[in-house]
Specification:
This protein has about 350 residues and is α/β, with parallel strands linked by helices. It is built from 10 helices and 8 strands. It folds into 2 domains: about 220 residues, Spore Coat Polysaccharide Biosynthesis Protein SpsA, Chain A (Alpha-Beta Complex), CATH 3.90.550; about 70 residues, no CATH class. The chain has an 8-stranded mixed sheet, with helices on both faces. It is elongated. It starts with 8 loop residues before the first strand and ends in a 15-residue tail after the last helix.
């Protein structure tokens, strides 16, 4: 519940090895918020950085109590960082963006204006993206098309972190693994009115990208999970049953083909390895796919039953008393804050 001391806006930024960008990013966000007269808090989630980001974040927080810092004990990934930011922030409106300075904080007022028009979630669209075409833009375009068609939630840019949310649609959001890119799908399940708008995208000038072509395959695998959770979570027998019927059909067809080749071409079935190989490899793929989906469901059951977040916090900076327990944070051994002796 919002109190009189709660800010109107929470800006959540996951951080992983972005030491060269942090001061400028903080200044830009603070400048935009103060220019617009926004009562805000800035929540940095340090996802196990090893490049000096922790020290810079502590320095920024010591100079401005509106800057909150969550330090993870190790790197858990962007999804865990965003989940912690959502739980530990307080404002009724939450804006997320990346720390690499490619998202432009000057777009935040426009995102908030779209929320005021009656939307619940506003997603940024990097319409003129400043990244390499073949290694970043083209794979992203293909992935966005596949996700939009499969999920029936059409968006131009699922990979853009710059978004604005009404808090009620972030409560109890099931964020595990690397599912942060599918938040627009999750919130539509909860009835959110979603829209998107073009935002400025700037080239990276410092630091290095944490993503490569391998991310495309992770996105596709995660999409399979999202599709399963949406359509077959309650009745998984339908999901496995469809593949079972397909496998049975292929088995019958393979036997028929082998019999046809035997009588018309004289090819004995035991000398026709292609049918055996095709069936064997298909079954192996089906088994691996099924095991992957079952494992995803079991992991989610484990987290939901235990109410245990998929991360551990080393230290909180500038958070008021009681926020940690309300967020259900699991702490590691305590480390002195920046204001204490070390």
């Amino acid at each position: 519940m919002q109190t009189v001391t709660d800010p109107a806006l929470s800006v959540v930024v996951p951080i992983y090895d972005e030491v060269d960008n942090l001061r400028e990013l903080c200044d830009e966000i603070r400048s935009v918020a103060e220019r617009e007269g926004l009562d805000f808090e800035l929540v940095f989630v340090n996802d196990g950085s090893t490049d000096g980001s922790r020290e810079v974040l502590d320095e920024l927080a010591s100079a401005d109590e509106r800057i909150k810092v969550v330090h993870f004990v190790r790197n858990y990934g962007q999804t865990a960082a965003m989940s912690a930011g959502f739980k530990l922030s307080r404002a009724p409106v939450v804006v997320t963006l990346d720390a690499d300075l490619q998202n432009d904080p000057s777009d935040i007022p426009a995102l908030l204006a779209r929320l005021e028009e009656g939307h619940d979630v506003v997603c940024g669209w990097r319409k003129e993206r400043k990244d390499a075409f073949f290694t970043r833009n083209l794979p992203s375009w293909v992935a966005n098309k596949i996700i939009s068609v499969t999920s029936k939630v059409p968006l131009h840019d699922y990979g853009c972190t710059l978004r604005a949310y009404r808090r009620e649609f972030l409560e109890d959001l099931p964020l595990y693994g690397e599912m942060h890119r599918f938040i627009p799908i999750y919130v539509t399940w909860a009835g959110a009115r979603l829209t998107e708008m073009p935002v400025n995208h700037r080239p990276r000038t410092r630091g290095r990208s944490k993503y490569g072509l391998s991310r495309v395959f992770k996105v596709l695998l995660d999409l399979v999970t999202v599709k399963f959770l949406r359509d077959y979570y309650v009745n998984p027998i339908y999901f496995f049953g469809y593949f079972g019927f397909l496998l049975g059909f292929l088995g019958v067809a393979s036997i028929g083909a082998a019999i046809f080749m035997k009588f018309y071409y004289g090819t004995w079935m035991h000398k026709n390895p292609f049918v055996i190989f095709s069936v064997m490899f298909f079954i192996m793929a089906l088994v691996m796919f099924s095991m992957g989906v079952i494992a995803e469901v079991l992991i989610r059951m484990n987290f939901e039953i235990q109410k245990k977040p998929p991360y551990k916090v080393m230290r909180l900076v500038n958070f008021d008393a009681g926020r940690e327990s309300r967020a259900g944070v699991v702490r590691a051994s305590r480390v002195p804050s920046s204001g204490e002796g070390r």
